[in-house]
Amino acid sequence: MPVVTIFSGTFCRKEAVAEKLIQRTGYRRVTDEMVIRRAADLSDWDEKKLHAAFAVKPSVFNKFTYEKERSMAWIRLAVAELLAEEGLLIDGFSGQVIPKEVSHVLRVCLIADLQPRIRRAMETRGLSEKAARQHIHEDDEQRAAWVNTLHNMRDPWAPGLYDIVAPPDKMEIDPIVDLVEENLRSEDIQPTDASKRAAADFVLSARVGEALAKEGHNVEVIARDGAVTLKINQNVLMLGRLQEELKEITEKVEGVKSVEARIGKGFHRADIYRKYDFEMPKLLLVDDEREFVQTLSERLLMRDVGSAVAYDGESALSLIDEEEPEVMILDLKMPGIDGIEVLRKVKQSRPEIEVIILTGHGSEEDRKLCMELGAFAYLQKPVDIDVLSETLKKANEKMKQNKTARF
């Protein structure tokens, strides 16, 4: 039996279409939440972290942690394994990860014009016209970002991505479902030997991607009848060593017959490939001395410690609300909210974050107060990079011990 995927704009009557289609076909509905739960079981990751893969922008730490890419690897694997089942209606973002070569998938898009969507949002949610417009704009932006990530296309409703694009503001529910059922009976959408092999290739590439993600790697994976090609799309200083490591991991995946690791089209970009070190913390540097903090960030990166930067206390607190830093290096004297107040607020709201004070203006009274408030360490500028690195290591170890104790 073919598989159906539905991708929809908000306030486009997706629920009504999906329910009617299930009633008529007996298909089993698979939502993004169900895929995330399956991915969480595969990865032992928190569902919230996996769901963040659908977000418009990745975490500020993502260029060091690759959390979005790793989440996507497990989402792909969850969807790929689901394709072994028949009679599925995959509803939401997840269906977009299925390669076009899997031709027994009927891809349906529901998108209405903006004004009918605004009216529906106002009627069903009690929103003002302005709030409805903003809500729809944000949702569309999220869908556009997801589609662009997967297909390098900025229009999430581009007809070339789908077999059916139905306008629910111009068509009633029954005619839309009739159209889907008619296409499900078409010979063009029935499983063939070629499409089944493509589904099997999808499973293998997803398993290889998951195995590489577990080891901190982020490369493009293509599988064809057991032959796996790995494309390295970032520059790397020791290409041969990386190729051998990637091949060694991939060869252990069941079903892999051969492996080729080669450079991809993005290899000659300026950024450098970095394998993620799972032992390193998500580090936030907070200091209003821009030149100093940028230099410190670069020196730490040379030691494979990536960091995000905030230049004032307000920005740091906002970032902490949105992100999940694990260790902070915090200056005391800053305009606006000073470091002591930032430390106090962080320890009240996120006590698990270890905070290292690094200041050139502190006093003994400041040191005592900071330690009483829960700072991990109090260091003076200028600081020896080896001392700071060792302090970071110890703060990270304490953070991990506390996290383990909580769970």
Report on this model:
Helix 10 links the parallel strand 7 (227-232) and strand 8. The chain has helices at residues 14-25, 32-43, 47-51, 62-65, 67-82, 114-125, 129-151, 173-184, 193-214, 239-251, 290-301, 313-322, 339-349, 364-373, 385-406; strands at residues 3-8, 28-31, 88-91, 105-110, 164-166, 220-224, 227-232, 258-263, 283-286, 307-310, 327-330, 354-359, 377-380. The two termini are 43 Å apart. The protein is built from 15 helices and 13 strands. The protein folds into two domains: 3-189, P-loop containing nucleotide triphosphate hydrolases (Rossmann fold, 3-Layer(aba) Sandwich), CATH 3.40.50.300; 283-406, Rossmann fold (3-Layer(aba) Sandwich), CATH 3.40.50.2300. The mean pLDDT is 91. Helices cover 48% and strands 15% of the residues. Helix 2 crosses helix 5 (67-82). The strands form three sheets. Strands 2-3-1-4-5 form a five-stranded parallel sheet. It has a five-stranded parallel sheet with strand order 10-9-11-12-13, sandwiched between helices. A three-stranded mixed sheet has the order 6-7-8. The protein is α/β, with parallel strands linked by helices.
Strand order of the largest sheet: 2-3-1-4-5
Biggest sheet details: 5 strands, parallel
* Spatial gap, N to C terminus: 43 Å
The total of helices stands at 15
Query: What class, by secondary structure content?
Result: alpha/beta
- How would you sum up the global shape? globular
Provide the succession of SSEs.
Answer: EHEHHHHEEHHEHHEEHEEHEHEHEHEH
- Taking all Cα atoms into account, the compactness measure Rg is 25 Å
CATH-wise, what's the superfamily of the largest domain? P-loop containing nucleotide triphosphate hydrolases
Indicate how many domains the architecture comprises: 2
Give the fraction of residues assigned to helices: 40-55%
How many DSSP E strands? Answer: 13
The CATH architecture of the largest domain comes to 3-Layer(aba) Sandwich
